[in-house]
Design brief:
Blueprint (H helix, E strand, L loop, with lengths): L1 H11 L14 H9 L15 E3 L10 E6 L7 E8 L6 E7 L7 E6 L5 E9 L4 E8 L13 H7 L3 E8 L2 E8 L22 E8 L2 E8 L8 E6 L6 E7 L4 E6 L4
Antiparallel strand pairs: 1-2, 2-5, 3-4, 3-6, 4-11, 5-12, 6-7, 8-9, 9-12, 10-11, 10-13, 13-14
């Protein structure tokens, strides 16, 4: 467990990444924007309304940290779609946010399969859109071998850890879930056969009955997902509900103190 917590801290608790990798012109995005994401026009880019930080060159294409932030006075977001243009399934995840997460400071780890723009399209309460993104140099993330043997994967699947700390008047929560998040593009290192896709596709995190965030995910969220986010506490326990595509369901509750 200690190694797991240390890895999460190193990947997600660092300062913002260098701002040297803006979005690049993308023919792929031109095709995706309307047909996959459903946008008739390009959303505006405004780093105070929504910003996305990511490394210019990823240390590990299967574990690329993404941080989404807003300025303190930015208009709240109700939803956000995370898109990795060149991934086999470009829509990495779709999020819904509760009021307690605003202004947004949210981190997640993803797989990047080829040099690609990674972009977030946020939705405000009035339906208005805003976009942010970075160009990330990484390759092979969706087919990278799993980090553990299959017996260990099955034994630990669905285990969760939660920790929290205070910073700048809000709580910083870190949720860690054991799951291989198999993409369907990986091979078993013993049998050399393809491993069927199996990933958490539904996740809800609440404090009491109030939503913090919900996620609908595809194959691009990394193995053993880690989510780090700032929120306003209401004193109620943290409740987590997760489902994977094999029909497994996990529910767990944590004291607000972690």
């Amino acid at each position: 467990m200690k190694a797991w917590l240390t890895a999460a801290a190193l990947l997600l608790a660092s300062p913002a990444f260098a701002q040297d990798n803006p979005l690049l012109p993308s023919e792929t995005w031109n095709d995706l924007r309307e047909s996959v994401v459903g946008l008739n026009e390009e959303p505006p880019i405004d780093a105070t309304a929504l910003d996305l930080d990511a490394p210019f060159r990823a240390n590990d294409a299967a574990i690329v940290p993404i941080r989404l932030t807003q300025a303190p006075d930015a208009a709240p977001l109700t939803e956000l779609t995370l898109v990795i243009d060149e991934n086999p399934a470009p829509v990495a995840a779709e999020y819904s946010f509760g009021d307690a997460l605003m202004p947004l400071d949210f981190e997640v780890r993803v797989r990047v399969d080829a040099y690609s723009d990674v972009r977030a399209i946020g939705t405000r309460a009035d339906g208005g859109k805003i976009m942010a993104g970075r160009f990330v140099k990484a390759s092979g993330g969706c087919s990278a071998p799993a980090g553990k043997d299959m017996a260990a994967v099955e034994a630990s699947k669905g285990q969760m850890r939660w920790k929290t700390a205070e910073a700048d008047g809000r709580n910083i929560g870190t949720l860690m879930i054991r799951h291989p998040m198999f993409s369907g593009l990986q091979r078993d290192q013993v049998t050399l056969l393809n491993i069927p896709a199996n990933f958490i596709d539904r996740l809800e995190v609440r404090q009491g009955d109030d939503l913090l965030f919900a996620m609908k995910a595809g194959i691009s969220v990394s193995e053993d997902p880690v989510f780090r986010f700032a929120y306003r506490p209401n004193g109620q326990p943290i409740r987590v509900h997760a489902e994977d595509v094999d029909g497994n369901i996990w529910d767990q509750s944590f004291d607000v103190s972690g």
